[in-house]
2,3-bisphosphoglycerate-dependent phosphoglycerate mutase
Amino acid sequence: MDRLLVLIRHGQSDWNLKNLFTGWKDPELSPKGVEEAKAAGRALKGVGPFDVAFTSALTRAQHTCSLVLGEVGQDGLETIRDEALNERDYGDLSGLNKDEARERWGADQVHTWRRSYAVNPPGGESLRDTVARALPFYNQRILPRVLGGQRVLVAAHGNSLRSLIMVLDGLSPDGIVGVELETGVPIVYRLKADSTVDSKEVLKP
């Protein structure tokens, strides 16, 4: 039984390119992001086929998922979309340039909002809040599919995926804040029957 789980952060978005806080805002992929997603799909050709895909309610993740599935020849695969996998909500920071935010609130404060586990930006979510919605969805909807032997693709966002990686890799809150996910780079997990990780591979396209 394969118990395959592939996590992929969406390709670069227009707002990533412009160095803006994105959160629940809904920009499209940049041209580079489209190419990243396609390259990820090509890197996954020997890993699939997949039985089901999960993605967020945001366009950049959905588009990435679609492009990956197109490259592996699985257009039309069952794809479940849910806000639980959305990016962390950056609240009042959403749409602001990160350098402008540092000028407004100070570099130390912005660093704390971005990199701490439990401190919320004004009007937004902490990473702990993101874990609190993403992890139950993983446990209730995604993990049972994987443990049942299905090959599962999850195309989502840096912080929602870090919420899952925190558990998969057995990281502490302090450990996960230092983890960075590159856009468009698949992470391939194979799980044991008890849901712990048997192997992990990062596929750099």
